[in-house]
Amino acid sequence: MGGGTEAFPDLGMHCQHSDCNQLDFLPFKCDGCLKVFCLDHRSCKAHECPNPDHNSRKVVVCETCSTSIEITGHHGEEEKLILERHEKSGECDPKKKKKPTCPVRRCREILTFSNTSTCKTCQIKVCLKHRFPADHTCKRINSSSSSDNKFLIALASRIGNDCGKKGRSSKSPTSTPSVKAY
Fold it and tell me: Which of 12, 35, 98, 133 has the fewest CB atoms below 10 angstroms from its CB?
């Protein structure tokens, strides 16, 4: 079942869907059934592919320990048998089920990979709300506050002194203008 036109016989292919047979110059090859289809029939659902999930990964989550178990290569085995084998293997530990939470007092945020931040100062994992050292009880916050105190002391000593106009007079000169008019 070739494709193309009289001038270009090798260009494009016909859709192998039984009702279509459209000549498509950018055909799609199905990875499941290895047939060629047009844009309208390229999805497995559209052409009713007999092997739609040949390359997909399937995972079952254990309710006891929240561990995910891949079942892609286990054709014919039921999910229940795979879960039973997991529970008997010794890898299933109910203590693993508890999810880590933010250590800040009164914060119950569950820490996941997308909302966890590690403090650069004390290396504690906290939620995004408490990622700054001032928002959680950071161990080194006292040492940084001494530098803040130095800053505040320097700022207080400069109050009243205008740093921006140092060495210049504060009054504008009332002398003759720099441009003369004739």
Answer: 98
